[in-house]
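Usage example:
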Amino acid sequence: DSGVTQTPKHLITATGQRVTLRCSPRSGDLSVYWYQQSLDQGLQFLIQYYNGEERAKGNILERFSAQQFPDLHSELNLSSLELGDSALYFCASSVLPDSLNTEAFFGQGTRLTVV
Amino acid sequence: DQQVKQNSPSLSVQEGRISILNCDYTNSMFDYFLWYKKYPAEGPTFLISISSIKDKNEDGRFTVFLNKSAKHLSLHIVPSQPGDSAVYFCAASGAGSARQLTFGSGTQLTVLP
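Running the assembly step on the lines above writes:
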């Protein structure tokens, strides 16, 4: 158990809908990262938050947004869903975003299926 | 543009033998490299890492080698065990990237009993 909790584990929704994925980081971790893993692909970095503030942005679509709350949990909002958004979405957390030798710990992921 | 590449999608090895997983990178700003292991229906689990000031890091059966001039790293597992069967991801981060990880596409390792 990595200590990172993601809910829900599975989500099936229709095209055009909006969903919210939730992540609770490890206790004490201030940095949260979101990654997307599509079929047979590596993990693509979407966005990072540190202590409530957006820290870095990767290949995140404009239809997607995220936030980190004062209690440090984070939510990833996906809207106007398309079939191609079907993927595994992972959240990871780490203590500090800028320190060398800091690995990120991953949750079990949310499998999103858009039908 | 794939900055971290794992060119072998799969690898099969006999139990007890050495497994060697390879990874190449293109971004010279990367200074920290990690290997993650992933079982089906689970998130990636950190395995071992190496900073760019070293060329080798060992942890039990796992050793990571870094060749900066070739922009290449490899993970050696000796001896390989059936429980090592998983997808292995190489990842890299750099000082200018707020430490988010750039992942390769993964290599499925199968250790045959």
